[in-house]
Description:
By secondary structure, the protein is an alpha+beta fold. It has 7 helices and 7 strands, in the order ααβαβαβαββββαα. The strands form 3 sheets. The protein has a 3-stranded antiparallel sheet, covered by helices on one side. α6 (134-147) crosses α7 (153-170).
Amino acid sequence: KIVRPPYFKNEDIFFTNCKDCEGICATVCEENIIFITNTKRLNQEDDIFIKNICNEIFMVKDEGFDFGMWYKFLIHLDVENYDRLTLINDSVILFKRLDDIYNFKNLSNFDFLGLTDSYSINYHIQAYFLFFNKKAIKHVKNYFLQTGIKKTYYDVVLDYEVGLTQYLISN
Length: 171
């Protein structure tokens, strides 16, 4: 389950109290927030903010665009330890908490979803925000292991953005 002490199984208390925790949720709540970034230096303010809300910072060599960073993380991920996985592009600006999206996911039967989809090239979930439920996480890792790091933007879009959606639909 996604809620741990001090809220235990009471999601109502979790969602009511957690939004006011000012970063404490990285150590109190069930969410394991891992910031994956390339080796660029962060300014001091960003560094402090990220360390306050993330359980871990995972730094990788800059190659393969976002999917390259995610690949380098996922190859080390023990998928059995996670109930859900969200991959968010660093160009996404959040104007409010993600509770509405996660609450929708908790009420739905989807194994994976995104905020928008596209029929360009072939049907796919657009890669700036990807959400995977437990059942899909192992398939995501397998797909990343099979696909590896892509060098060109076109290959990333074709093999990861479009290809991952098609792979997940077929599995």
